[in-house]
Amino acid sequence: MSEAATAPRELRDSELDGPALSARLARIWGTQRSIVGWLSSVDHKVIGRRYIVTAFLFLFMGGLTAIVMRLQLAQPESKLVGPDTYNQLFTMHGSTMMFLFGVPIGEAMAVYLVPLMVGTRNIAFPRLNAFSYWVYLSGGVFLWISFLLNIGPDVGWFAYVPLSGPEYSPGKRADVWAQMITFTELSGLAVAIEIIVTVLKQRAPGMSLSRIPLFVWALFVNSFIIIFALPAVMVASTFLILDRLIGTQLFNPAEGGDALLFQHLFWFFGHPEVYIIFLPGTAFVSAIIPTFARREIFGYLALVLSLIATGFLSFGLWVHHMFTTGLPQLGAAFFTANSMLIAIPNGLQIFCWIATLWDGRPVWRTPLLFVCGFFFIFVAGGLSGIMLASVPIDTQVHDTYFVVAHFHYVLIGGNVFPLLAAIYYWFPKFTGRMLSERLGAWNFWLAFIGFNVAFFPMHISGLMGMPRRVYTYGPEMGWGDLQLVSTAGALVLFASFLVFVWNVLASLRSGAVAGPNPWGAGTLEWATASPPPPQNFDHIPVVTHREPLWAERGGLPVVTGLSIRHRELVVSSVAEAEPQLRESSPAPSIWPLIAAVTVGATFIGSIFTPYAVLWGAPPIAAALTGWFWPKNTPEDEE
Amino acid sequence: MSTVRAEPQPFEPHQARVTRDLSGLPTYGFGPKSPMWWGTLGFFVVEGMGFALALGTYLYLVQQNPHWPLAPIPPDHWAGTLNTLLLLASLWPNLITDRHAHAQDLGRVRRDLVIMSLITLATIALRLYEFTGLGVRWDQNAYGSITWVLLALHLTHLITDAGDTLVLTVLMFTRHATGKRFSDVSDNAFYWYFVVASWLPIYVAVYWIPRW
Amino acid sequence: MTTGALALRLLPIALALPLASCNLVQSPLNPVSPQARDLLWLFWLFTAVLAAIWLAVMLALLMSLRARRTFGADPLAVDPRRESRAGILVAGLAVATGLAVLVLTGLSFAGQRRLFADEAAAVTIRALGHQWWWEFQYENADPSQGFNTANEIHVPVGQTVLVKLESTDVIHSFWVPSLMGKVDLIPGRQNTLRFTAERAGVYRGQCAEFCGLQHAKMGMLVVAEDPETFARWREVQSQPRLEPATDEARAGERAFVAAPCSMCHQVRGTRAAGHNGPELTHVGSRRTLAAGTLPMSRGNLAAWIVDPHGIKPGVNMPLVKLDPDELNTIAAYLEGLK
Questions:
Q1: Shortest alpha-carbon distance between residue B153 and chain C (Å)
Q2: How far apart are the C-alpha atoms of A486 and A453, rounded to whole Å?
Q3: In chain B, what are the helix, strand and coil shares in percent, each to the nearest 5?
């Protein structure tokens, strides 16, 4: 057997036990306590934590832009901001929420939790993971610095041509938007591949497909949607940059190009994007409901199939964003049917969750409160989505505040409420301390009431004829009162986030100590200390049930035989999770950061001159070679 | 109040029951056993989507315009045809490289990698020459733009594969040429199949649809 | 209080709100054409069905939150009979969901066919989108009877109007909700829409696709009037401008033609023949200025000429230096172009 090239005298975890083993593994898997060590970390928990904190910072920034817009619209003919600032604000709001918060937050939670839930020691391709984070951070910082320098994009988060093209958007603003897309999509794609491979190949022995936690299934399907959808927006933004910078004519109708082409490419990504944002929400809900209903999930198989069906169907809906562009009527009707069809798997999920609660004994804690808020808001948003799926109805409500109301019900209901539930749920795992339940209740009720007061009236504003993306309106239009109510609601919603931040900061210092499994939950992340040690698990567990901690009351069975000389993890088969390899896992490295810096400099440089791509290529190649070149560490030589 | 200390009892670490010892498992594998193989497959999907959408754009523009190509003559296809033949012919040495990597035959793998490096460099040179025969500039009209985009998009894949192959070739001549590197060589060969396969529809679109 | 109870309490308030407000100058809730009425009916039908579904789901959620599980503390212990009953129920609900969306899809498709039916049109108008105003060209078999106007169209009650939509720059969207749903104006394409106003009145519309800096101030008016009034209006519009009647207006015309104004604006019957800005031959007959931004009056005309960028920042109309006399006479002249 040529593959079994192991040293004859290798230190194994079977030779140590208890605290000695823990300490040794923690040393091998740990992140050095120095600036270089911090910048070189490849620990999925360290990077996941950075991802989560960064995404929340962007959520906060996006929220601030929303508040300024709400104040501007609170009364007719307000002079708080002018059209130029307002157009930048709503572009920044949409771009930040979709690209810097919406996609990354689901991936961020996955980066932290998926390896724990599947019982492995690190994510697949950990250096790529570090690289993705730095690229994401640079993209976000780049966008916001541009905004502060008054070259923030002002063409909407959708950047339709020809408005965003060379003729109608001179200057660098639209380029900033397009390159921010390149940054964030690159990192999003990389993380999606890491998660797919982690789920396929690094599951703990015995975690066959039917024992994968629903949380992991949801983020796994989500990663597939990402790798099929995100290339479309990268193609769209790249074509836009080419049209703007080197004079291609792809979107110019005068030279054989086509303006609607951009919309097709953008929405081929843009509709799946909604599910990229929503599927992590379902992941959180599916993890939280069994724990607080105190029974296993009802309809596991139906839920998995719903996720997969949603993934497929999400690619057949994009034209419903283009119903007013004058496409052939029969084609448009096909997309109506498809858009409505997706209600079936989504409905099925809701029914299964309610059935689980129905047969359970609900334990009232903040995560369950937020999950109930999710049901209330998301179901309403999903149903108003059915109205938008109808071509004739859409011609009246498209691009009005009705749509603004609808998608905030979907996105805040389907992502942010489950996310807050998830933070209350996993905060003890992340930090070892509980969040305050009292502040949690305040947080929930302020968010719930604020949200509905802010967004419900927008349905009516839309029906009263108020279009989206207007910086002002005349008093004679009669929208002022409703807009004022919306602004008041938005302020309450914002206040709820201040309560949240307060809760997090206070609990970090003085929250109750959590212990490994404060909620008595059943999945593997609760089988290790809170916060988890660098190696996640001292011994890799063997999984015998979908809820291993509920099934194995006497302690989890484990496997041994992994190295304690260097980083090693178990690679298992795709379907049955039968162990196949003891593969080494990369050690920390500064090269991913260097590579991200060279890539970022090239992207930003290319806005100013196409030759930046040529100048940037050698440093990028050097950084990548440095990254992959063996360093004489035991990990590399295995 | 803040914790649910109800049944079942919190799980205690260190109560581990050992059910199996994995020390006999190999430390690397080939093909679907290797996570890197799956990662490569993931990148195929991403890049394949990029190709598919660029090709879709090409066909969309063909259908939007009453005449195609938007140039007096279709592109000269000889350099492209030659390149296509070279790419197809390279599948054989690529297969051989993969086989020798599986057999962990260092001497032959070194030779094969040198051959594959030269082939990738030759296809890049030919590709650069292809641009001269297109008969249209990228900024002339949408036809020129999408033709250049398709060729350039594939060129970037040739270049990244060439870089990857060259680094691996050098690596195999150093003392690091052990064990897992053979798996890397195999994954690199896997990637080349994708580079060749993705070229064929582009070849048809760029050189033959304008002649239709 | 539970979320479900809150939902029940919010709902009537929510439904009452639109009825309480009565300013529906630009609203799908105030339909005056068969097309818009059909749309509103479909909207309320969907709303009723979907609201009922939402209420049912919330009710189920509310009931599910009562602790009713009585057996064992083990979260993995389930009663197989209850499980299979629940399975049948959930499957039945999924099938019901499927049926509901099937019916709604059918209703939607039927509505779509009615909405976009090809009908012979009595009046054909070519609408050209500009950043940030509307150019309207009334087509006529006899080209001398055709004419251009801006930001305001008149249509005859009871007759079908065909609007051909094109854009000269970026994407805009033509939306007069009382008459018809919106359709986009896309460079390089021509879209169409049809409507038939059933009641005389003035209906406001607005660009509904973000089109740049002044997207917010790209309004228009549709004036529906009885066919005789419309025919008279049409006759007047197709004529050259009214001869200025006063000395002041005559001075205004001289100043207008001499000033840079004439480079962008046309006034038929004078040497002013620019095409970059709105046609002004009968500007004084329009109800608003600057694409629905200001009511038409002599004072507003002067204000607009003096400070276009204060009223509509970023507008393409440049600031033209005029002395106060010229300004006054030009405003008087334009106001007189009925």
A1: 28
A2: 6
A3: 70, 0, 30
What are the mean pLDDT values of chain A's consecutive 10-residue runs (638 residues total)? 45 81 93 93 97 98 97 96 96 97 97 98 97 97 96 95 95 94 94 98 97 98 97 96 95 95 96 96 97 94 97 92 89 88 94 93 94 97 94 95 97 98 98 97 98 97 96 94 96 98 97 94 95 95 95 89 92 96 94 96 92 93 91 70
Q: What is the dihedral of CA C173, A70, A150, A60, to 10 degrees?
A: -120
Q: How far apart are CA B207 and CA A352, in angstroms?
A: 53
Whole-angstrom distance, CA of residue A199 vs CA of residue A222? 12
Q: Which of A590, A600, A587, A591 is nearest to A622 (CA)?
A: A591
The pLDDT confidence band at residue B3, using thresholds 50, 70 and 90, is very low
ipTM over 0.90: yes
Does B7 touch chain C if contact means CB atoms closer than 8 Å?
Answer: yes
Instruction: Give the count of domains, chain A.
Output: 1
Quickly list DSSP for A395-448. HHHTTBHHHHHHHHHHHIIIIIHHHHHHHHHHHHHHHSBPPPHHHHHHHHHHHH
Q: What CATH superfamily classification does C123-236 receive? A: Cupredoxins -  blue copper proteins (2.60.40.420)
Q: Is C73 on the interface with B (CB under 8 A)?
A: yes
Across the interface, of A260, A341, A387, the residue whose CB is closest to C46 is A387
How many CB atoms lie under 10 A from the CB of residue A501? Answer: 12
Q: Smallest Cβ distance to C28: which of A163, A463, A473?
A: A463
List all residues of chain C from 117 to 146 with a beta carbon under 8 Å from chain A. Answer: 131
* Domain locations in chain C as residue ranges: 123-236, 247-335
**What's the CA angle centered on A311, arms A309 and A314, to 5 degrees?**
105
Cβ atoms A357, C64 nearer than 8 A: yes
Q: Is residue A634 included in any domain, yes or no?
A: no
Residue of chain C with shortest Cα separation from A359: C69
- Compute φ and ψ for A514, nearest 5 degrees: -85, -40
Percent of chain A surpassing pLDDT 90: 89
C75 at interface of B, judged by CB pairs closer than 8 A: yes
Q: What is the full DSSP assignment across A283-294?
A: HHHHHHHHHHHT
Give backbone dihedrals phi and psi of B169, rounded to 5 degrees, phi first. -60, -50
User: Which domain does A519 fall in, by range?
Assistant: 37-628
Give ∠ CA C314-C318-C320 in degrees, rounded to 5: 145
Q: Which residues pair with C156 in a beta bridge?
A: C225
Residues in CB range of C74: below 8 A, 6 or more apart: A550, B7, B8
Instruction: Look at domain B77-212 and name its CATH class.
Output: mainly alpha
Task: Mark the ranges of chain C whose per-residue pLDDT is less than 70.
Answer: 1-22, 67-72
Give the number of residues written for chain A. Answer: 638
**Which chain C residue lies closest to B6 (C-alpha atoms)?**
C73
- Taking CB atoms and an 8 Å limit, are C115 and A395 in contact across chains? yes
Q: Domain for residue A14, yes or no?
A: no
Give yes or no on whether C123-236 and C247-335 have one common fold. yes
Q: How far apart are CA B177 and CA B105, in angstroms?
A: 11
Q: Which CATH number fits domain C247-335: 3.90.550.10, 2.60.40.1930, 2.60.40.10, 2.60.40.420?
A: 2.60.40.420
Asked if residue A18 is part of any domain, the answer here is no
User: Looking at chain B, which subunits does it touch, using at least 3 CB pairs closer than 8 Å as the criterion?
Assistant: A, C
Cis peptide before A170 (omega within 30 of 0): no
- Alpha carbon of B88: minimum distance to chain A alpha carbons (Å): 27
Beta bridge partners of C163: C125, C193
Instruction: Please report which residue ranges of A202-328 form alpha helices under DSSP H.
Output: 214-245, 259-293, 300-313
The CA-based diameter of chain A, rounded to the nearest angstrom, is 86
**Structure-token pair, residue A525:** 């992340």
Measured CA to CA, the distance from residue B53 to residue A261 in angstroms comes to 11
